[in-house]
Amino acid sequence: LSVSVLGYALLSLLVRRPRSGYDLARAMRRPIGFFWHARHSQIYPELARLEAQGMVTSQVIEQVDRPDKKLYTITEAGRTALRQWVTEPAELPPERSEILLKAYSVWLAEPEKALTLYRTHEQLHQAQLARYEQIMAEYEQEPDISSPFFGDYATLQRGIGYERGYVAWCRWMVEQLEKRLKRGQDGEP
Amino acid sequence: LSVSVLGYALLSLLVRRPRSGYDLARAMRRPIGFFWHARHSQIYPELARLEAQGMVTSQVIEQVDRPDKKLYTITEAGRTALRQWVTEPAELPPERSEILLKAYSVWLAEPEKALTLYRTHEQLHQAQLARYEQIMAEYEQEPDISSPFFGDYATLQRGIGYERGYVAWCRWMVEQLEKRLKRGQDGEP
DNA sequence: AGACTCATGTAACCAGTTACATGATTGC
DNA sequence: GCAATCATGTAACTGGTTACATGAGTCT
Hints:
By secondary structure, chain A is mainly alpha-helical. Chain A contains 7 helices and 2 strands, in the order αααββαααα.
């Protein structure tokens, strides 16, 4: 009956240009992987549902040297539904972070092992941040708000803020753990 | 066979003190709601599993004026399993953010409606930030790293950083949308 | 009278992951 | 020969939500 969030994720890609299920699965890694994710096993059935709901149409494109593909195109109904959805109120989602759950019990751990965890984790976020900053560097000017590029730009903006915040927190954790290790080695100061 | 992440979430609360399923469900809202969440319908079966795995033991406490309750206590095996888990490597989780998905298609929307969405969303994060800052204000000094309070403190630290970053991004979105609205009204500058 | 807290469970459903299944072409 | 890319699907399972189910005591 109604379109799922995954459905809107697919529509938000199809409104930019027609794509196959395979193309959509690739787009779920890059560029929208930072804020939405889905495997092909979830995408193909969802596309069938969207078609049944009249949100998209499909046509088979015959190809030589490669398997044929089904190109999906958004309909006017699909565009209208998406346009309406993007300004509907959004609640704060229930967060689930394994690393914060681990941090909650870090007082139980050997500081040396914890240090390794947070140093490695900082590097993961640092690498992600570097990727985002590289993409950001390619923008010569702010895209106009009515251009699809603004969507990329705005989400990238948040991605950079998110990763910077995470890196800062990992560093803080590492500092805390190092402080503790030094005190433990030197005797209480 | 092995303990699920939810299982570790429950153990991380039970290692601090014994609790009932009801108590654990409450703790899932406050204090650990920011980084982990579960309903009672998920908690009760998971406690049974943890008991079968020897991670916790239970005893029925008879109460007058209130229903009896089952108090769960962590075992030495449970404590060891948790202690080991907290320093095991954690990967970056696949993110799913509905508000960022909406931002990705904001170029389709009427700017007035989008403004309402991001102003409201900013207020939600601002309110959350205020709650965290109030709790933080109650710490007179940094807890020792080997005290359970350090777990609360470290996760709170990240919570504050997270909310500040989100508030800043929402403001940036609002500014972008306001810029656009003014230009649209005054003619292109 | 109605809502809230304490207290514990089960059942049906939905979303998402992992694995199964197939097959041609290109590059190392 | 082996892995990767292109291409589309299904099946089994896990994690999580919503709803069903019951019942006493307290507060407004």
